[in-house]
TrEMBL record:
NCBIfam families: ATPase-IIA1_Ca (TIGR01116), ATPase_P-type (TIGR01494). It is found in: Endoplasmic reticulum membrane; Membrane; Sarcoplasmic reticulum membrane. It comes from the Eukaryota. It comes from Eschrichtius robustus (California gray whale). This is Calcium-transporting ATPase.
Length: 1149
């Protein structure tokens, strides 16, 4: 290694205390000393300090750094390694009270050597060296998990033969790799591959639904009975089980296809696992590129602009003026973050505040640095998120739970009714119709019981629900909400809390300058300002600059011309027009892009923009300014002076006399402190204390309250030093060059709220949905945006309603639950906070929709009932979510909630429609069995009605328009039964009418039809006793009781009533006069199609034979209509009672 890299041991990262589980136990330390000597020496390597588990003590500098005795151990330090690995002589000291960046208790009383045995006030060198040739006792010396030890400890684990006394021995890279593999197996440093579900597992999952299992059982029983049927009935007997099996197979195919499309979840994290990394090891001079998965804790890693960080790194040296990192995927911060090497005194700092850490998977935006790998693989922050996601078990949606409950209730009811029918008819088992055989009679009535079960089960319900949800996803997709999980469509309808990210969802995530000022007058101790407002909330270079209420021409204000010049030149970003997307996008930092966009809006030189294309328009005004002034070099931003500047020389002959200038932008307090004058128009006026305070007061006002703008001061040094006199390689001199400045103006920018969001939040409030903002930004900014959007009122006290992650942690568990119940804003949060917030909300039975776009959001997205990822977000977030917003817009969430409510309402309608038909079928079979009447409906007819005739209108009901007041109701309780007491009564009332009507139609043919036998009701009830020698049936042919006409009459009445029911189901409670059927044209088409199919089985051979039906006469069809149409009046009466019931409930509330 060519140079020394000194690391403050006080800044060493220790996530956990050093114990047998997380570091070195006392036994391990003793064993290491026994084996390697008190100073870590091994045979043949005197002075080689630190076998893999050696405990190193560092105290004061020794008189002789080479001695290796026990005394030396007690008194010698771990000296700095020089350029060639030799002992160095310098020692730097860190503050003794500094704490670890990751959790060492700051200021707490502790062992002066710290948990790793290293004194907390000593800087020690970090370097790489070869491992000891002596084999490592891996069984006896168990390495700590990578994040559990300090930097130095992790380094010594990797490099056990750091020759701190006599230099570095000859490198053996192959042994170093071997030791790395022994100490850190692949499971520690590589994200494991997630095994997907096999095809058979996906298929079996489709049969976990209770309704599907009941259908499967009915099919098996029907198949067994068909196997023992009489020869002439064998063909039709097999139709029923085959049709049921076809239904189940089709349903499974749809389910597997949906699962296959959605299955990508945790593996998307691989996108953020870097492929390569740059490390410094002793086996090669300089930097070497290796696979990122080969990096182990203790490696010295180098990163530069454009790199993806390969592991969690503790920074030890920044080789550029600044280091900026885009860690938005992990923390959600909207702008890149400046990093440093100083210790973080806060032992509980959140990831956003760990400025001396680089996290795996984040990107270097600018600069170059070196750091020590302290965590790899699953132990990185990225890996922890992956572990959390893998540990979460998917929960069933409210709809799935209700359908399970419904299936249990249905199975119990079916069992009771079927048993009752069989038991009631025990007395008929030996009737002559069964040949006097009790067993044949028992089997006959068992078949009737099975037919009853088939009638009671809504075979088409699973398929119709899947179809309805799929149709709902298509409608949502048109509203920019792409649903990945079908059941979650309905869950949206009962969402009671929306936890929304701020950046990009509630705001545009396009930093925009909305205010600026220049000095109008600065005379006689007073200072007046020209304050301008700028319209536009995106990167599109379109907007007006206004002074008060009036638009202005910026070129008429000398101060604005200079301000635009500074914004353009003191800037490394650009606007770019994305022709594929049709939008303007940033190239570079968001803050600087906002300034670039401002210059385009100002157009201070009145450039003709009309003839330009959108691509040319992106940088037209900036290009004019850059033609007038040439940027010579940049003094980069630094934390100490909080500013950056550019040195520019004029290129235009008319400006040459003005000479070179330095343009400065930075934090207002820092820049204004170095200003000695202020620009007033084209004049330069001395800046007195009063004017300075007035300017700072205005900036403070902009930076607080409702605005909370991010302010930048802009200044000029009119007579800068000559370039030749400036020491550009010494960044400590930069502040000297940025003095004697002239204040030009100030700009205030923000990530603006989306214009449509405030109205959407108002709609949510009206619908009883609470909106909670959860963001990684600071609390002041978050509260300000909440006020702008209406989450908080302008003057509302936010105490107890807005928390930072730290404040939330300080609460007791019960207080945290209360905070989640009442708060509407959480700022400066980490992924763990989001997950806890969701858990607490779920403890109150809230249905939570959680939005997110970064890797850090994935666990909370997966835990929430509805995870909503942004279309521009990471693949990890999208794979963990149930829904993806293609436009990243909060308004799309509200539209999706409305659609979810409409879908649930429509589902209730078609469930009511299907169940009323099934109740009617059960009543029909039950009544005929109790009264001893001939079968009105046979199983194959029931299947046809349940699947085909009813299936089409039921599916079309999914297209019903939403009720007029759907977003004025509170979210429904997820525990609310799918079929409530009143709803059950409605099902029962309509179903009983359906059943009695079908029986009545069949009976009418036997008793009154001119073409029928016109038998008595007594004869009809005792038809099983019909025989030639029974005087009761003298003159009556017994075959007449097997005629197809009565079953055809019953089937036609059933189908006609169901079509009337479908037309009644456009709205749950609204009358047909208010919401007529033609509001849903798909329903009219489905009704027409169902009737056409009914006529098809009546008229087209061989269907009449299969379904045991026959064509009806005109007189018979008139009777069918007379019996069927009254159901419309019955349902209208029930709707009226329902509306009255709902109005009474509203009045009570």
């Amino acid at each position: 290694m060519e140079e020394a890299h000194l690391l403050p041991a006080a800044d060493v990262l220790r996530r956990f205390s050093v114990t047998a589980e997380g570091g070195l136990s006392p036994e391990q330390v003793t064993g290491a000393r026994e084996r390697y000597g008190p100073n870590g020496e091994s045979a043949g390597h005197a002075g080689a300090a630190g076998a893999a588990c050696a405990a190193v003590s560092v105290l004061r500098p020794p008189p002789n750094p080479r001695r290796g005795t026990a005394a030396a151990e007690r008194s010698s330090p771990l000296p700095a390694i020089g350029p060639r690995g030799r002992a160095g002589r310098q020692e730097a000291r860190a503050p003794e009270t500094s704490a670890d960046a990751l959790g060492a208790p700051g200021g707490a009383a502790r062992d002066p050597c710290g948990p790793s045995g290293l004194p907390t006030s000593t800087r020690v060198p970090v370097h790489s060296c070869r491992p000891s040739p002596t084999p490592i006792d891996a069984q006896r010396c168990i390495p700590a998990p990578p994040q559990s030890a300090g930097v130095v400890q992790a380094f010594l684990f990797l490099h056990p033969q750091a020759d701190v006394a006599g230099g570095v021995a000859e490198p053996r890279p192959e042994e170093e790799v071997r030791v790395s593999r022994v100490l850190y197996p692949r499971s520690l440093w590589e994200l494991p591959t997630e095994e997907g579900k096999s095809l058979w597992e996906l298929v079996l999952e489709q049969f976990e639904d209770l309704l599907v299992r009941i259908l499967l059982l009915a099919a098996l029983v029907s198949f067994v009975l068909a196997w023992f049927e009489e020869d002439e009935e064998t063909t039709t007997a097999f139709v029923e089980p085959l049709v049921i099996m076809l239904i189940l197979v089709a349903n499974a195919i749809v389910g597997v296809w949906q699962e296959r499309n959605a299955e990508s979840a945790i593996e998307a994290l691989k996108e953020y696992e870097p492929e390569m990394g740059k490390v410094i090891r002793s086996d090669r001079k300089g930097v070497q590129r290796i696979r990122a998965r080969d990096i182990v804790p203790g490696d010295i890693v180098e990163v530069a602009v454009g790199d993806k960080v390969p592991a969690d790194l503790r920074l030890i040296e920044i080789k550029s003026t600044t280091l900026r990192v885009d860690q938005s995927i992990l923390t959600g911060e909207s702008v890149s973050v400046t990093k440093h090497t100083d210790a973080i005194p806060d032992p509980r700092a959140v990831n956003q505040d760990k400025k001396n850490m680089l996290f795996s998977g984040t990107n270097i935006a600018s600069g170059k640095a070196m750091g020590v790998a302290v965590a790899t693989g699953l132990h990185t922050e990225l890996g922890k998120i992956r572990s959390q996601m893998a540990a979460m078990a998917p929960e069933r949606t409210p709809l799935q739970q209700k359908l399970d409950e419904f299936g249990q209730q249905l199975s119990r009811a079916i069992s009771v009714i079927c048993m009752a029918v069989w038991v009631i008819n025990i007395g008929h088992f030996a009737d002559p119709a069964h040949g006097g055989s009790w067993l044949r009679g028992a089997v006959y009535y068992f078949k009737i019981a099975v037919a009853l079960a088939v009638a009671a089960i809504p075979e088409g319900l699973p398929a119709v629900i899947t179809t309805c949800l799929a149709l709902g996803t298509r409608r949502m997709a048109r509203k920019n909400a792409i649903v990945r999980s079908l059941p979650s469509v309905e869950t949206l309808g009962c969402t009671s809390v929306i936890c929304s990210d701020k950046t990009g969802t509630l705001t545009t995530n396009q930093m925009s300058v909305c205010r600026m000022f220049v000095v109008a007058e600065a005379e006689a101790g007073t200072c007046s300002l020209h304050e301008f407002t700028i319209s536009g909330t995106t990167y599109a270079p379109e907007g007006e600059v206004r002074l008060g209420e009036w638009p202005v021409c910026c070129g008429q204000f000398d101060g604005l011309v200079e301000l635009a010049t500074i914004c353009s030149l003191c800037n490394d970003s650009a606007l770019d027009y994305n022709e594929a997307k049709g939008v303007y996008e940033k190239v570079g930092e968001a803050t600087e892009t906002a300034l670039t966009c401002l210059v385009e809006k100002m157009n201070v030189f009145d450039t003709d923009l009309q003839a330009l294309s959108r691509v040319e328009r992106a940088g037209a005004c900036n290009a004019v300014i850059k033609q007038l002034m040439r940027k010579e070099f940049t003094l980069e931003f630094s934390r100490d002076r909080k500013s950056m500047s550019v040195y520019c020389t004029p290129t235009h002959p008319g400006l040459a006399a003005q000479g070179s200038k330095m343009f400065v932008k930075g934090a207002p307090e820092s820049v204004i402190e170095r200003c000695s004058s202020v620009r007033v128009g084209s004049r330069t006026v001395s800046l007195n204390t009063t004017s300075r305070e007035q300017i700072l007061a205005k900036i403070r006002d902009w930076g607080s309250g409702l605005d909370t703008l991010r302010c930048l001061a802009l200044a000029t040094r009119d007579v800068p030093p000559r370039k030749e006199d400036m020491q550009l390689d010494d960044c400590s001199k930069f502040v000297q060059y940025e003095t004697d400045l002239t204040f030009v103006g100030c700009v205030g920018m923000l990530d603006p709220p989306r214009p449509e969001v405030a109205a959407c939040i108002s709609r949510c409030r009206q619908a009883g949905i609470r909106v909670v903002m959860i963001t990684g930004d600071n609390k002041g900014t978050a509260v300000a945006i909440c006020r702008r959007l209406g989450i908080f009122k302008d003057t509302e006290d936010v105490a107890g309603k807005a928390y930072t992650g730290r404040e939330f942690d300080d609460l007791s568990p019960e207080q945290q639950r209360h905070a989640c119940r009442t708060a509407r804003c959480f700022a400066r949060v980490e992924p763990a906070h989001k997950s806890r917030i969701v858990e607490n909300l779920q403890s109150f039975n809230e249905i939570t929709a959680m939005t997110g776009d970064g890797v850090n959001d994935a666990p909370a997205l997966k835990k929430a009932e509805i995870g909503i990822a942004m279309g521009s977000g990471t693949a990890v977030a999208k794979s963990a979510a149930e829904m993806v917003l293609s436009d990243d817009n909060f308004a799309s969430i509200v539209a999706a909630v409305e659609e979810g409510r409409a879908i649930y309402s429509n589902m209730k309608q078609f469930i009511r429609y299907l169940i009323s038909s099934n109740v009617g079928e059960v009543v029909c079979i039950f009544v005929t069995a109790i009264l001893g009447l001939p079968e009105a409906l046979i199983p194959v007819q029931l299947l046809w009605v349940n699947l085909v005739t009813d299936g089409l209108p039921a599916t079309a009901l999914g297209f019903n328009p939403p009720d007029l007041d759907i977003m004025e109701k509170r979210p429904r309780n997820p525990r609310e039964a799918l079929i409530s007491g009143w709803l059950f009564f409605r099902y029962l009332a309509v179903g009983v009418y359906v059943g009695l009507a079908t029986v009545a139609a069949a009976t009418w043919w036997f008793l009154y039809d001119a073409e029928g036998p016109q038998v008595t009701f007594y004869q009809l009830r005792n038809f099983l006793k019909c025989s030639e020698d029974n005087p009761l049936f003298a003159g009556t042919e017994c075959e007449v009781f097997e005629s197809r006409f009565p079953t055809t009459m019953a089937l036609s009445v059933l189908v006609t009533i169901e079509m009337c029911n479908a037309l009644n189901s456009v709205s749950e409670n609204q009358s047909l006069l208010r919401m007529p059927p033609w509001l849903n044209p798909w329903l009219l088409a489905a009704v027409a199609m169902s009737m056409a199919l009914h006529f098809l089985i009546l008229l087209v051979p061989p269907l009449p034979l299969i379904f045991q039906v026959t064509p009806l006469s005109g007189r018979q069809w008139v009777v069918v209509l007379q019996i069927s149409l009254p159901v419309v009046l019955l349902d209208e009466a029930l709707k009226y009672l329902s509306r009255k019931h709902v109005d009474e409930e509203k009045g009570q509330k």
